[in-house]
Structures are given as structure tokens and as C-alpha cells.
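sry for the spam today, last one i promise. C-alpha cells for design, 324 residues
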């Protein structure tokens, strides 16, 4: 089920189902709001986005209230999550999935928000989006690629490409907007050559791992698995969590894998990624492409969970096409 496309003038509601937006600096909120306004959208905020407890989240009841209010409000056409964190899976048994299914809307976020995006897709069939947070729009520099991909994903029905960005950055921009370093990028890294077509399933690997054995884990049959990690994931944890996913009964249905670029602080090298993939004999026959522009390194593409995609990799040449 594809949500209605966003159009100029549409209202986007910001909610904080994981970590409170109180962690986002006021200037970043201002920049993000202005940028979305410049794109033609009206920004409103859930009642509890700035509330927080000692864990810098708030009660399940308050977060569920904001989530449900956003979906049932007819004026709201899209929902952006404020930022990620650790607590989104607390909400899964409390969500009114019938309400969401009756009021399908663009729902976007990544990292910990993977739990919500995957559960909503599994329970309702609604395509959800692994893409920028509201706070992401508060980045001052180097955001053009991110914005373009977001608009391609949520404002039109045409297929779009996830091509390598000209540069990428791993800076902690939220600490210093002015001192930024951008690294040139020519290609993605093809680990296994080949081509495949399937349904996009994935997001943050460790968060997806939390859904195994629950009613909220999407099927991997006929899938293009897209996975990424943050700087808390070392190569050993990436290895064993990926192995766990590949041991799921329907993992034989994975047609191809896309791996988002790792943050420098993870100390996960290209050589290490290649070695991990080499140990997965289950993957020998399918294409695997790494260093793709999604996840915790900027810029990031918007990837729709549940949409169809085709991928191919040959040498240093890659094609990733997403169909609405």
C-alpha cells in the first residue's frame, strides 16, 4: 500500500517515538523547519516531542498518543520522526495498526525507527520510508543529495536511482555545523557481482534483529535486504547479527543485499566487510553492494520499505533503481 504523495502546502507532523526532540538544539530545529517550509511543507509538532525522562524519552502512552494523533489527523499528510535512539520497540504492542491502515501516510525515519517502519509495513502493508529524520533537515551543508532523494521518494510515482553521491561526510555536524569534512566518492563497493529484483526490506540491522521471532518481522521472501549500522556496531557484532538474519527460515528468499556505509568510529573497514560476506556461503549466488548512501553517514538516500527495486553490480558499476 503506497501512501499518498506529498504536495506543496501539505502538513508534516514531527513526532518523537524514540528519543525526545529535547536533545535537538533550538537552532537546528529552526533550520529544519525553515528548510521544510522552503520545500513547500507546513511543519507541526506532536504534543509530547520535547517531553523527556531520565532516559531522554517519555512514556509509552505519550509517544503512542502523538503517533496516533498524527495518523488520524486529516490535515497531516506526512510524518517525520525527530531522531532515533533505543526505545521505539516499546511501542509495537500498543499501536493501533487498523488506525494506520485506514489512514495511510508517509512515515519516515531510520536507525531505531526501523522497528516502527518494519512493524507498520508487516502489520498493514503500508510502505514506510527509511530516510531522514526531522533533525536531519537541520544540517546546514551537504544536504542536497538527501533532500533530492527524499523528494523523489515521497512526492512522485516515478522510479528513481540511488546513485553514489559526489562526496560523503561522517562529521558530528550537530556539534559543529561549520567545521565539516567531505570525502570524495566515485563508486559503491561491489562485493558480489550480479543483478536482482525484489521487495526492499531492512533498515538498521541491530534494530531489525530485535524483531526476529515476533509478529513484527517482515518476510524476507523475494527481498532486497538493505542494512546499515551505527558506530556502536563493530565488525564482530555486524558478523553475528547478519548471520542470525540469514538463519531465518525465509532468508533463502533474499535476492540481493545493500549495505550502507559504516561510520569511521565503528572501525569497520572495507576489507573486513568483504571478509564477513565471504564467510556467508548463503550469499555466494546473489549480488552484494556496500558503501551505499543510506544510514548513519551523510548524505543519505530515502529507501521505501516494501517497494520494489532492481539492483546490479559489475566491477565498479552499480545500478539501484527503486519503483514506487
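last one done:
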Amino acid at each position: 500500500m503506497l501512501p499518498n504523495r506529498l504536495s506543496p502546502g501539505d502538513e508534516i507532523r514531527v513526532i518523537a517515538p524514540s528519543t525526545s526532540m529535547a536533545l535537538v538544539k533550538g537552532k537546528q530545529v529552526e533550520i529544519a523547519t525553515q528548510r521544510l517550509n522552503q520545500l513547500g511543507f507546513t511543519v507541526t509538532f506532536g504534543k509530547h516531542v520535547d517531553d523527556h525522562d531520565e532516559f531522554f524519552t517519555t512514556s509509552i502512552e505519550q509517544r503512542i498518543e502523538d503517533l496516533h494523533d498524527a495518523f488520524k489527523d486529516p490535515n497531516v499528510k506526512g510524518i517525520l520522526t525527530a531522531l532515533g535512539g533505543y526505545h521505539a520497540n516499546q511501542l509495537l504492542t500498543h499501536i493501533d495498526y487498523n488506525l494506520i491502515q485506514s489512514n495511510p501516510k508517509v512515515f519516515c525515519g531510520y536507525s531505531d525507527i526501523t522497528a516502527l517502519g518494519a512493524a507498520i509495513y508487516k502489520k498493514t502493508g503500508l510502505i514506510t520510508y527509511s530516510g531522514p529524520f526531522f533533525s536531519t533537515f537541520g544540517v546546514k551543508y551537504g544536504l542536497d543529495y538527501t533532500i533530492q532523494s527524499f523528494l523523489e521518494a515521497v512526492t512522485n510515482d516515478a522510479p528513481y536511482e540511488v546513485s553514489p553521491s559526489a562526496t560523503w561526510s561522517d562529521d558530528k555536524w550537530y556539534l559543529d555545523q561549520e567545521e565539516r569534512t567531505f570525502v570524495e566518492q566515485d563508486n559503491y563497493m561491489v562485493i558480489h557481482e550480479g543483478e536482482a529484483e525484489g521487495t526492499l526490506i531492512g533498515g538498521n540491522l541491530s534494530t531489525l534483529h530485535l524483531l526476529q521471532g515476533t509478529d513484527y518481522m517482515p518476510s524476507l521472501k523475494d527481498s532486497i535486504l538493505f542494512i546499515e549500522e551505527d558506530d556502536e556496531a563493530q565488525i564482530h557484532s555486524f558478523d553475528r547479527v547478519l548471520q542470525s538474519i540469514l538463519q531465518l527460515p525465509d532468508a533463502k528468499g533474499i535476492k540481493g543485499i545493500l549495505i550502507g556505509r559504516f561510520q569511521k568510529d565503528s572501525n569497520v573497514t572495507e576489507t573486513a566487510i568483504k571478509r564477513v560476506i565471504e564467510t556467508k556461503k548463503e550469499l555466494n549466488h546473489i549480488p552484494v553492494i556496500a558503501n551505499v548512501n543510506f544510514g548513519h553517514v551523510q548524505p543519505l538516500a530515502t529507501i521505501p520499505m516494501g517497494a520494489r527495486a532492481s539492483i546490479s553490480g559489475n566491477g565498479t558499476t552499480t545500478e539501484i533503481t527503486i519503483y514506487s
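The longest helix spans residues 26-38. ok im logging off now
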